[in-house]
Design a protein that fits this description.
With about 270 residues, the protein is an alpha/beta fold. Helices cover about 35% and strands about 25% of the residues. The protein has two domains: about 180 residues, P-loop containing nucleotide triphosphate hydrolases (Rossmann fold, 3-Layer(aba) Sandwich); about 80 residues, no CATH class. Helix 3 runs parallel beside helix 6. The longest helix is centred in the middle third of the chain and has 20 residues. The two termini are about 20 Å apart. The relative contact order is 0.18. The chain binds adenosine-5'-triphosphate. Adenosine-5'-triphosphate binds next to strand 4 and helix 1. The site of adenosine-5'-triphosphate (ATP) has 11 residues, from strand 4 and helix 1.
């Protein structure tokens, strides 16, 4: 259904979309008798912003959890760089360069913004506990490099003014931005965002949109997101997968998806001839 060329190409606004980075092939996921995902296939291409949309209970979060390695599907395969990914623990998937944010913010409320973001560097830490405890050279160099990266992200997401503030004291929109910062601290190749705009006011949504686009543009990070705000999805995404009752009912550019009768009937709810 998609109008994307097969090879790498540059979009009209100057962004580069590469080849297939991740492929979901015939994924089926069951919870006992409930089939959350039924035989779904789609791919995510390097550098694109890919949205997954659909009504409540359609299976979007389940799909994000398959991508992040939190759920291993009973059927189908996940390919990363063309290679089949064996069942993995989420930390192993994180080491492959996949980071995520959550629908309900998952930060340490009592810790400062800076320390929360530092936890995102864990997958990059190589020194052992003993070296860190006695602050040997290698541990010191690593700490300095990690701090430098974290400070760069703080600067990029414009949160310098709250770097020492405990996260629990922040308003909702800023907490979401700190969660994004922590995910970015892992320097992911694929960033998974679970409803990044949920519960935000218009201004906070505009800010978040801008930061998502900037992350994609500046770091070249591939992004897959679930979002209910259709205006945001259609503005942000290069391609959209539409799910309904665990099945894929649409897959293409925002314009293609918007024009699909099946998608309109099941989800968008706009009248057609
Ligand atoms: N851990 C689980 N155990 C049992 N059933 C589950 C579990 N997670 C999801 N389901 C079921 O799988 C189906 C898909 O749920 P999922 O949360 O993936 O949908 P969703 O599209 O993300 O919905 P929402 O937009 O409301 O978050 C639903 O019927 C749900 O009840």
């Amino acid at each position: 259904m998609t109008a994307f060329p097969d090879e790498s190409f540059v979009t009209p606004d100057g962004r580069t979309i590469g080849g297939v980075l991740m492929e979901m092939r015939n994924i089926t996921l069951r919870f006992g008798g409930v089939i959350a995902i039924k035989d779904i296939s789609f791919d995510i291409r390097e550098g694109e912003i890919r949205a997954i949309i659909g009504p409540n209970g359609a299976g979007k979060s389940s799909m994000l959890n398959v991508i992040s390695g939190f759920y291993n599907p009973q059927e189908g395969e996940v390919l990363f760089h063309g290679k089949k990914r064996p069942p993995m623990r989420p930390y192993q998937v994180a080491r492959q360069g996949i980071a995520r944010t959550f629908q309900n913010i998952a930060l340490f409320d009592g810790m400062s913004v800076l320390d929360n973001i530092m936890t995102g560097r864990l997958t990059h830490m190589k020194t052992g506990l003993l070296e860190q405890a006695i602050w040997w050279g290698k541990a010191e160099r690593e700490e300095v490099a990690n701090r430098r990266k974290v400070e760069e992200i703080i600067d990029f997401l414009e949160i310098e003014h709250i770097r020492k503030t405990p996260v629990g004291r922040l308003p909702y929109g800023l907490k979401k931005r700190v969660e994004l910062a922590r995910a970015l601290a892992a320097e992911p190749r694929i960033l998974l965002l679970d409803e990044p705009m949920a519960g935000m006011n218009v201004e906070e949504k505009e800010d978040m949109c801008r930061f998502i686009l900037d992350v994609n543009d500046e770091y070249g990070t591939t992004i897959a997101l679930i979002e209910h705000d259709m205006g945001v999805v259609m503005d942000l995404s290069d391609r959209v997968v539409v799910m309904d009752y665990g099945k894929k009912i649409g897959d293409g550019t925002p314009d293609e998806v918007r024009a699909s009768k099946e998608v309109i009937d099941a989800y968008l709810g706009v009248a057609h001839d």
